[in-house]
Specification:
Layout: E1 3-5, H1 6-28, H2 32-35, H3 46-70, E2 78-80, H4 83-92, H5 118-138, E3 148-150, E4 158-160, H6 161-184, H7 199-207
Pfam families: DinB_2 (PF12867)
InterPro entries: DinB-like, DinB/YfiT-like
Protein name: DinB family protein
Amino acid sequence: MAKFKSEELLNELAQDVRRIKEAAQFLVTADKNKLAYCPEEGRWSAVQAVEHLNGYNRHYLPLIEKELSLITYDKNAWFTSGYWGERFTKMMKPTNVYEIKNKMKTAKKMSFPNSLHVETVLNEFIAGQDKLLQLLELAKGKDLAKIHIPITFTKLIKLRLGDTLRFLIAHEQRHMIQARNTLKKTGVTTDKFPVLLSVTETSQQQKK
């Protein structure tokens, strides 16, 4: 399993979240009709992809905040990922900044109709990124392996806090790239859309 210096991992994840927030702020400037455009039947619009992420944040962020407030395990300088956490993160993490190659099915409760209020969806997502940054800062004083968070589709599987954060942020990177690509198909220029993966992250994913 992968091993990280805890504070370095949290700082890198925080930088990822800042890029994701910038990407959401780019979407705010786009035409609302184009954000709600579905390229083809069975495909999500850009705003549906963001609402999907909101659904995950509604599950994970309150649980993470609750556990951080209750658990008093001392900080550990190192974090080692668990089996499920490493597997789920690898499944979600994009291998490049341009496309999502490994398609995955979505649970019905995390798939939303294309009748969404675009501004409300984006505002909620941006607020979620601010909350996530706060939680990453709070996590610096905790043992990332001792706190466990249940995943969305079963309470039987719980991920270590460090893995939960890695998975959640990889999932956001994945679907923000999807939102960017969907928006690009409407003719919107996405040159100013932030690069969501660092060179290091991209090279690491391609080696796996």
